[in-house]
Specification:
The protein is mostly helical and 101 residues long. Helices cover 62% and strands 0% of the residues. The longest helix is centred in the C-terminal third of the chain and has 36 residues, at 52-87.
Length: 101
C-alpha cells in the first residue's frame, strides 16, 4: 500500500495539526480576540459598603427606592381600578344588573 513514508507523513500530520491550531489560536490573544471596554472600570462597578455609615446610607437608599416603587405601584393600581370601574358600567360588578332586572 503506502509504505513507511506514508505512515511517517500521517504520524507527522496527527502531531503537527493540533499543535499548529493551538499555536495559531494561542498567540496574540489580546490583540485578536479582545473586545474594547468589555469589563467595567472600578469606578463604574458596584462597591460593597464596609463601614457602618456606608451600610446605613445604602440601607436608607434601598428603603427609599422600595417605598417610591411601592407608591408608584399603588397609584397605578388605583388608576387602573378606576378605569376598570368606569369600563364595567359604574362598578356594579359588570353583570348588567343595574336596572333592577
Amino acid at each position: 500500500m503506502g509504505g513507511l513514508n506514508l505512515e511517517v507523513f500521517k504520524f507527522g500530520m496527527y502531531l503537527m495539526f493540533p499543535i499548529g491550531i493551538m499555536f495559531y489560536f494561542g498567540t496574540n490573544l489580546d490583540e485578536r480576540f479582545a473586545v474594547p471596554d468589555f469589563w467595567p472600570k472600578p469606578e463604574q462597578a458596584n462597591r460593597v459598603p464596609l463601614e457602618r455609615d456606608e451600610i446605613h446610607a445604602e440601607l436608607q437608599r434601598l428603603k427609599a427606592r422600595r417605598l417610591y416603587l411601592r407608591d408608584r405601584r399603588i397609584e397605578n393600581e388605583r388608576a387602573n381600578g378606576a378605569n376598570n370601574i368606569n369600563d364595567n358600567g359604574g362598578g356594579n360588578g359588570g353583570e348588567g344588573r343595574g336596572n333592577g332586572a
